[in-house]
């Protein structure tokens, strides 16, 4: 008879032999798969071997180097750019990543209308942005881009100026409540940028949406956290597994908040449209309407405006936002959502769902980026009091003691503030990297390298903006980097906060104009202070570049400052 001990010995032996068989079968299966994988990707592997980069392990490649918290991963990527100049490859398991940091190579990619497909990582945006402009490709992207780009033409943007002013003043009124305290300005900047988008590009009143801009902005911020987790945690990548985790449930909840706002926006706008209402239904306070000189602004010919760097792009690069005024007929000069709805009623194939997806895209791209840019700007003003003094000086010379709203002409006079803003976008580009998928081999310009089809290309904007051969003393906040004498001799693609080329940011001019009005209004009213210096900034690149330590500032009312009420 078998005793308990004898029985368990047999069981243990059986288990051992079962697990032995499993491993005996698993190891050759993995080896076979690995050999098949190498053979089927021979071309890619051969070209990759000629690219510089850290040596990896079989199967997992360099994956172990890219584990850790979000800010650790960001540092690892950044450090890699010092070990390998211009170009570096890394294998994350079977995935080949190639990092580019030379403007000559960046030009090859960004100026092309062929290499425009987004990397597969962008698919995590799909449940949120659907087939919106940011992630779509091919014919859909081309048609929608052609439709949307003219809605961000300067002539359309000029009509937003009174609403930019009204919302900037409302923000200043809210900020006054924090006067003297240390607080995180990012929350205020997010709320302001969401509300401005609602009232301008969407053309609806912020007060009729039944949901605060702040609630929407917070939901977006948490969604970005989840998307970033899916980029960095390999087990969260497959949808079926992700949906089983708590993050899947949280995402569902957040998307409810986000989509309920955008659905309401489209519904309200359609109702207004069907009643014959065109243009923004947002309320502009009387004191702004009465004092804003729209006629004088309308006389400034767009072609007379110094374009390029004033609107976030190196002089010399042109994209579809720079089309000549004559190319944009009267009919096309509609704000974004007005045009989308009109187009859908006039036989252009655009379903309500597609309109909502574009609204989701513009709401996201349009607010989180500018919220980060304005928050970094205020922190930098606090960290550099002498530079801040010069900004105050320039603003006082434009506005004197008047509390009149800013005009388009004023924004063209804000030369020093503009340099500070561009320098902010250089050192802290809100979109720190751009990723593309290559469908064909590409020969680079910086050396004898060919990027293989199938690789994921990462353009390291953050690093390009901090190259010491392009920007002397690259980590120093120096607005003079944007003095015309210095910009004239730089490679066009060495400053790309808004990307460049056919897939550049459609909101670049909108962003620059809005930021100038918002930030000048804040600076007219406050001195920005902080106990922190720039080297304290803890950076985290989760989709949009942020400070993990928060955007803490303190505001003091300017003695000679104009009062907005
Ligand atoms: C400081 C503010 C902003 C920065 C730094 C910024 C930066 C960028 C960058 C780098 C891209 C390319 C992303 C990629 O290829 O992965 C992009 C695309 C885009 N941006 Fe912006 N953006 C800003 C503001 C805005 C605003 C205000 C809007 C809309 C009102 C907007 C709408 C878009 C859209 C729709 C795209 C996708 C364009 C396409 O693929 O055709 N952005 N932005």
Automatic annotation (TrEMBL):
<dbReference type="Pfam" id="PF00067">
    <property type="entry name" value="p450"/>
</dbReference>
<dbReference type="InterPro" id="IPR050196">
    <property type="entry name" value="Cytochrome_P450_Monoox"/>
</dbReference>
<dbReference type="InterPro" id="IPR036396">
    <property type="entry name" value="Cyt_P450_sf"/>
</dbReference>
<keyword id="KW-0812">Transmembrane</keyword>
<feature type="binding site" description="axial binding residue">
    <location>
        <position position="505"/>
    </location>
    <ligand>
        <name>heme</name>
    </ligand>
</feature>
<protein>
    <recommendedName>
        <fullName>Cytochrome P450</fullName>
    </recommendedName>
</protein>
<keyword id="KW-0479">Metal-binding</keyword>
<keyword id="KW-0408">Iron</keyword>
<feature type="transmembrane region" description="Helical">
    <location>
        <begin position="20"/>
        <end position="37"/>
    </location>
</feature>
<dbReference type="InterPro" id="IPR017972">
    <property type="entry name" value="Cyt_P450_CS"/>
</dbReference>
<dbReference type="GO" id="GO:0005506">
    <property type="term" value="F:iron ion binding"/>
</dbReference>
<keyword id="KW-0560">Oxidoreductase</keyword>
<keyword id="KW-0503">Monooxygenase</keyword>
<dbReference type="GO" id="GO:0016705">
    <property type="term" value="F:oxidoreductase activity, acting on paired donors, with incorporation or reduction of molecular oxygen"/>
</dbReference>
<keyword id="KW-0349">Heme</keyword>
<keyword id="KW-0472">Membrane</keyword>
<keyword id="KW-1133">Transmembrane helix</keyword>
<dbReference type="InterPro" id="IPR002401">
    <property type="entry name" value="Cyt_P450_E_grp-I"/>
</dbReference>
<dbReference type="InterPro" id="IPR001128">
    <property type="entry name" value="Cyt_P450"/>
</dbReference>
<dbReference type="GO" id="GO:0020037">
    <property type="term" value="F:heme binding"/>
</dbReference>
<comment type="similarity">
    <text>Belongs to the cytochrome P450 family.</text>
</comment>
<dbReference type="GO" id="GO:0004497">
    <property type="term" value="F:monooxygenase activity"/>
</dbReference>
